[in-house]
Structures are given as C-alpha cells and as structure tokens.
Specification:
The complex is a heterodimer of chains A (310) and B (234). Chain A is mainly alpha-helical and 310 residues long. Helix content of chain A is 68%, strand content 5%. Classes of the chains: A mainly alpha (310), B mainly alpha (234).
C-alpha cells in the first residue's frame, strides 16, 4: 500500500489535480505562479527523484524560454519598448512578461500532469470512472490489459515470420509496411477469435445479469473525507478571490486590481503599477498555497511519523 | 443509467451556453477552457449512449480488442521510421464496423494510448480528433464494400488524417500557447505543425492503400461470422 497522498482515496487524488489544474490556468498573479511552479516541481521531484530535475532542465526550462521568446517576437503590444526587431516591429517588456506568464503556466500544468501520471494510476482512474460509466470503463480496462498482451503476440508472430524469411528489417519501405501489415493481420485474426472466446466465458459466468456490482479496493476513510472537505473549502476560497488576484500585462503591467486604500507603487521606468494586495486576495493566495503543497505536506508527514517510530 | 437521456439533452443544451459564456468572460485561457468543456460535454452523451445500447458481451470484448489492436499496432511498425499507424488502423476498423462504433474505438484508443504515453491537456482533443477521423471515413465508406475499392478509402483517409486530425490536435497547441490571438502567432503554430501532419497523412495513405483491403476482409470476416455490430453493413 502506498502511503501519503498516493495512499489516499482516488476521489481525493482526482479532485486535487482538477482543482490545481483549473486554478493554475485561471490565476496569473506572480505570487500564485511561483507557488504553482514550486509546488508542482517539488512534488514531482518527491515522486520521481533525480529524473524529475533532469526533465525540468532539459525539457521544461528550454520550453519556457522558447514560449517567452516566441511571444516577444510575434506580439508587439505594450508601452515599454525594449528594442527594435530587424523587421521594424517593437519588442516590448509587456509581451515578454505575458510570454513568461504563459510559459510558467504551461510548465506547471505539464508538471502537474507528470505528477498525475505517477499518482492516478489506471486502476484509480477506473474505480472513479467505472462508478459513473461501467460499460466504457470495462472496455477501457480490457483494452489496457490487451495492449501488453498484443505486444507480446506481435513479437511472437514477428519471430515466426522472421523464421520463414520475412524479416521486418529488410526490404524497402513498401515491403516493410506490407510485412508489418501481414503481422497485424495475423494479430487481428488471432485476437478477435480469442476475444469471442473470452466473451463467451464472460456470458456463461453471468455477465449482463441484473444486480451486478463492481469491486473497488479503495475505501473512503475519515482522513479521505476530511481531505475532500478541505479541497472543497480551498476551492471556494480561491474562487472567491480570483478577481482580487487579477493582473494585467497588456498594454501595461498592473499587478492586483485598483483598490481605494493602501499604497500604490508606480515603477515608472518599466511603466508597471503594483496595487496593494487586498485581504481577500491574500486569503485566496494562502489557500492556494496550502492546496498546492497539500500532497507534499501529506507525504512529509508520513516520513516524519516513520522516523519518529523507528 | 436511468436518467441517461435527460443528462444527454442537458449536456447538448449546455454546449451553446458554454460557448456564449466563454465568449463574454475574461478569464485567463478562456478559449482553451471553452473548447475543452465543449469537447467533454459532447463526449458525455456518447458515453451514455454506449451505456444504454445494451451491447452483447461479444461486441464489448471485440470493441476492447480492436481498440487495443489500434494502440499496439505501433509496435509492429517499429522498423519503419516516422510511422504512427494508429489513425490508419482506426480508419480501416471504422470502415468495417460503422461510424458510431468507429467513433467509440477511435476515442477510446486515444485515451488508452495516452494512459501508456502520458495523459495531458491534449487528451480530450486527441480523443475527439481520433474519433472524428474514424467516423468521417466510416460515413463515406461503411457498407459500400461490394462496389468499392481501397484507393478512395486511402485518399480520403490520408486527407482526413492530415486535415481533421492534424487541425484539431494543433488547435489544442494553439489554445495552450497563444496568450492573445494574433493571426500571425496562430498561423505560425499551425504552420509549424504542417510537416508532421503531412508525414502523418502520407503514411496513413500508404498504410491504408497497402494493407486496407486485407485488414478490412479480416475484420469483416469475424464480424459476419459472429454477427457483431449488425454485420458489417452488408
């Protein structure tokens, strides 16, 4: 049994990821962007170790730079001119900032999906999805089981074909496609006939009778229920504060919406305005931070417990 | 599914509401959200219809089997570089079993292959694109076996793979990347996808041309033999 966040009920896992993905794309405040990217990266490192850091530096960081550069080169809105492009268009600070925001959003979204692939395994997804749509869930589950089986069969068939002189590695591209095709044709015949056999076996064991129930090895515990309630509460808090965390990057950079009281900072060199953060916005950002770091906190808590018991 | 029909109607009625709401709200990444919500809302009635159809156990396992064949087929082509045979296989399968089941197999194959290669924001778009590609070809060629040859299927299949599948999947990239929609920015993203889509469409054309009729025979033989999916529309 996996511990920490991975040991939670699938409903907790899935609702967590949906929340962070939705709000990760809604919020474009610098603070929330930093929270999202750090939380997702930290959790991904916690899940995949050194491999995660390598992915980040080899794939995600270059992507961030490319998206920023692309936005800088194709969009010319904004009031703060950085330099003139060879094409005669202006490269502006605002378009660079907007590109950076988009890039960070994409990076954290991709990181959350990496974490999703580690946490929400097929059986977890199916135990939630299968409650709502049993028939499509059954088809997907069977297909998932068939894919590795068919790969094995493909190897068997191709070995046999190589044995009679029809290797896939010789010949021009048309011959190769034809040989791959005859392998697939054999696979289709073999697999469809055995699928019919499987289904007859299913029918004789009572598939399709009334009162069929589904087995799920996940049980909702009190802790899971508390986690679900927490996620719901955090969602409501953040949803209330979305507009209080609003920011503009076009035509000029404005962080936080206008408020009647408090100190407004005008950074004249770059035409940026920083309005004070309202109490609602601060509360929403705090809720967002706790939500994003929730899996990491759960995992670390398990680690601390383990160490103190050892 | 007791309230399946009602839920389906609600979903379809919600689609224009979502589009109008997406048009007037000023959320961040509103276009991606609107598009993804419309796709998901249109997938729900399809899932419900699959639920209500009372599939025979044989049909159910055959659907799963065809889905897995389309996904696993990639392993058979590893000696041929740059080939993604899934779309071509889906088209051949859909032409043999009809548009509705073809859409089912296409959408599920995209979902299943993403379980293996990684889910992402592109999943609903790929599901929809693969299902639609298969369904369009099936609408054109399903049940016209006796007087039809494989060349038209290959041409239409290659074109649909290039245009429909490529366009929908690239749209996902555009919606994810574009901060504000300038025509040049959008076109540059679409243009950067064209070489890949051309290769994809071209290899699909080749695969269907070289293997289509044999595979179609194989699938239809099983379908007629066991009386599945209304018997290949013949």
């Amino acid at each position: 049994m996996k511990s920490g966040f991975r040991g939670c009920h699938p409903a907790v896992n899935i609702s967590f990821f949906i929340s962070v993905l939705v709000f990760g794309m809604l919020l474009r405040h610098p603070v929330t962007l930093v929270i999202a990217v750090f939380a997702s990266l930290a959790y991904y490192i916690r899940l995949s170790g050194r491999y995660a850091a390598r992915t980040f530096f080899r794939f995600l960081l270059p992507m961030l730079i490319i998206v920023t550069a692309l936005n800088l080169l194709t969009n010319h809105y904004g009031v703060t001119e950085l330099f003139i492009l060879p094409s005669g268009n202006r490269a502006t600070l605002e378009s660079a900032a907007a590109g950076l925001v988009t890039g960070i959003m994409m990076v954290s979204t991709i990181l959350w999906f990496f974490c999703w692939n580690e946490v929400v395994t097929e059986d977890k997804f199916m135990s939630v999805f299968g409650r709502i749509f049993p028939v499509p869930a059954l088809i997907i589950m069977m297909a998932l089981r068939f894919v590795p089986l068919y790969r094995r069969r493909l190897h068997e068939i191709s070995d046999a074909q190589t044995g009679i002189g029809r290797s896939r590695r010789t010949g021009n591209i048309f011959e190769r496609i034809r040989r791959a095709g005859s392998i697939i044709q054999i696979l289709i015949n073999w697999s469809l006939e055995s699928a019919v056999e499987t289904s007859d076996s299913m029918r004789s064991r009572g598939y399709g009778l009334r009162g069929r129930t589904g087995y799920s090895r996940y049980r909702m515990t009190g802790f899971d229920a508390a986690a679900l309630i927490f996620i719901a509460a955090a969602d409501i808090m953040i949803a209330l504060g979305v507009s209080a965390l609003g920011c503009l990057y076009n035509p000029r950079i404005i962080i936080n919406p206008d408020v009647s009281s408090g100190t407004v900072y005008l950074i004249s060199g770059v035409n940026a305005t920083v309005n004070p953060l309202s109490a609602l916005g601060a509360a929403a950002a705090a809720a967002y931070a706790v939500l994003c770091f929730m899996p990491l906190i759960m995992d670390l808590k398990e680690g601390v417990k383990w160490r103190s018991l050892k | 599914m007791r309230y399946g029909k009602v839920i389906s109607i609600i979903c379809i009625a919600l689609i224009p509401v979502v589009i109008v709401a997406g048009f007037f709200t000023k959320w961040e990444r509103q276009y991606y959200y609107t598009a993804a919500a419309v796709l998901l809302l249109s997938l729900i009635p399809f899932l419900i219809s699959l639920e209500r159809r009372r599939l025979k156990a044989r049909e159910l396992v055959t659907l799963a089997s065809l889905t897995a064949i389309a996904v696993a087929s990639r392993a058979a082509f590893y000696a041929v570089p740059q080939v993604k045979p899934m779309c071509a296989l889906l088209i051949i399968i859909a032409v043999s079993i009809g548009p509705q089941f073809g859409f089912t197999v296409g959408a599920l194959a995209a979902l299943v292959s993403n379980f293996i290669f990684g889910q992402g924001a592109w999943t609903p778009f790929q599901m929809f694109a693969a299902g639609l590609t298969a369904a369009i070809c099936a609408v054109c060629f399903y049940g016209k076996r006796r007087n039809g040859r494989i060349l038209p299927v290959a041409i239409v299949g290659g074109l649909v793979t290039f245009a429909v599948y490529g366009f929908i999947v690239d749209t996902c990239a555009v919606l994810m990347m574009a901060e504000s929609f300038t025509l040049s920015g959008m076109l540059s993203v679409y243009a950067s996808g064209i070489p890949f889509n051309l290769i994809h469409g071209g290899t699909s054309f080749l695969i269907i041309l070289l293997l289509g009729s044999v595979m179609r025979d194989t699938i239809e033989r099983v379908i007629i033999k066991y009386d599945l999916f209304g018997g290949a529309g013949i």
